[in-house]
Write a structure and sequence with these properties.
The protein contains 14 helices and 13 strands. The chain is an alpha/beta fold and 428 residues long. It has one domain: TIM Barrel (Alpha-Beta Barrel), CATH 3.20.20.210.
Length: 428
């Protein structure tokens, strides 16, 4: 399923061969780029940004923190023609390094440039015994899908996904990275095994969006059975990752939740002895797919199944694009909440009152600001200024993401960051 394989992982489909090779020319290109990243990471400004995130995540009063990830817009900033490497693996690594350089030298938001290079595990992962058929979706476009679970009589066909790690291939990938960038960057084996523990993405893929909402009224018992199965499957996955020593700490510059970074001194736990457990990590869940579901039905069909998953983590993030102002009275019951997404569709003032200085207010301006035919700086500035006024007593971070296009104009990203930084400084 889509929510089971995060971006940046080296996941193989079935028995497909994976080309883990680097030519001498590709190594030379990567070596040069890694040196540039290391030079950026050594700047005193990176230490200052790191300290800002530590204080922000500890709920100290700071200026609003600004982070911009153009996401699909990166393809308009660093195009395929801009990549010099030839091999598939090398081009992926080159793209990562060029992003770091652009972040640090051109975009200049509050993201910390670190002298590290993470290489994920090489692995296969099975589906849930069924898989949706996608129609469309090429090149990041829209799609529909045929949900496979047509009848609850077929529930017994579902199976927990299984992860199979190729340790030899993973070691090979690490060795290649050491050869190419290890002179300048610390190479680590580290995999972001999940984006979310929300499981409703998987639910919708299996059963269909419209059908799930009908099921809440027409087949509640069967839907509860399905949610319990998905919960148990996610639990089993976490158990496996823990027992096999496959988890890594995310209390550093790791992206956590739907925006922001993990810098914190509160993790790992005081009894940590080197083997990472979920309780030593940030956790995350959301339920964007149920945005049209009432708070009462969310409390019945979603919260009870997400809660035991988040209970396993030391600190938690919740929410993405869904507005949480109408279901906050339920969401606030999740354990050890710290970072709360406030989407462009939520009421900023209501969320400011609810969150106060007790949670991180992770504000998501509309990505349409970067996609419109014209870039309206004054409208963007006025909107950010109003949000910062409304959230003056909150622990605010401003996260630009979910961009499908930036209008083929990379300068928009730079200008947006400049405006956001100016307004953040002005708000103090």
């Amino acid at each position: 399923m889509s929510d089971q394989t995060p971006a940046g992982s080296i996941a193989r489909q079935g028995s497909a061969d994976l080309d883990l090779t680097l030519s001498a020319n590709d190594r030379a290109i990567l070596r040069d780029l890694a040196t540039q990243v290391a030079e950026l990471a050594a700047r005193p400004a990176e230490d200052a940004k790191r300290d800002l995130w530590y204080r922000h995540n500890a709920l100290e009063a700071t200026r609003p923190v600004v982070f911009c990830d153009p996401e699909n817009g990166w393809n308009e900033i660093i195009t395929p023609a801009d990549l010099a490497c030839e091999g598939e693996l090398a081009r992926g690594w080159e793209m990562r390094l060029r992003k770091e350089i652009w972040w640090g030298s051109v975009m200049r938001d509050d993201r910390v440039i670190e002298p590290v290079f993470d290489v994920p595990h090489v692995y296969d992962e099975s589906d849930w015994g069924m898989h949706e058929t996608r129609i469309g979706g090429e090149d990041g476009g829209s799609y529909v899908w045929d949900a496979p679970l047509k009848d609850y009589a077929d529930l017994d066909r579902l199976r927990f996904p299984r992860i199979t790690v190729d340790a030899a291939a993973g070691a090979r990938a690490l060795a290649l990275a050491e050869e190419a960038v290890g002179h300048a960057l610390a190479v680590r084996q580290k995999t972001a095994w999940w984006w979310t523990q929300g499981m409703t993405w998987t639910l919708i893929n299996l059963r269909g969006l419209t059908q799930v909402m009908l099921d809440m009224a027409d087949h509640p018992d069967e839907l509860h059975r399905l949610m319990a199965f998905l919960r148990d499957g996610h639990m089993a996955r976490l158990d496996y990752l823990e027992s096999e020593g496959l988890l890594s700490l995310n209390n550093d510059g790791t992206y956590v939740g739907s925006g922001g970074f993990g810098w914190t001194h509160e993790l790992p736990q005081p009894d940590f002895q080197g083997r990472v457990r979920t309780i030593d990590m940030w956790g995350f869940a959301e339920s964007q797919e149920t945005v049209q579901v009432s708070p009462r039905m969310f409390a019945e069909f979603v919260f009870p199944y997400q809660e035991p998953l988040l209970a396993r983590f030391g600190l938690n993030c919740y929410g993405c694009c869904e507005p949480l102002d109408k279901r906050w009275h339920v969401v606030q019951r999740f354990p050890r909440l710290r970072r709360i997404s406030v989407s462009a569709w939520a009421d900023p003032a209501a969320m400011a009152e609810m969150l106060g200085d007790r949670y991180i207010y992770s504000y998501k301006p509309t990505p349409a600001d970067l996609a419109m035919p014209s870039f309206d700086e004054e409208r963007i500035r006025a909107g950010l200024r109003e949000v910062m006024r409304t959230t003056h007593d909150c622990r605010l971070e401003v996260i630009m993401k979910d961009n499908h296009t930036i209008g083929n104009d990379p300068s928009r990203v730079v200008r947006w960051v400049r405006i956001a930084r100016e307004e953040a400084e002005r708000s103090m």
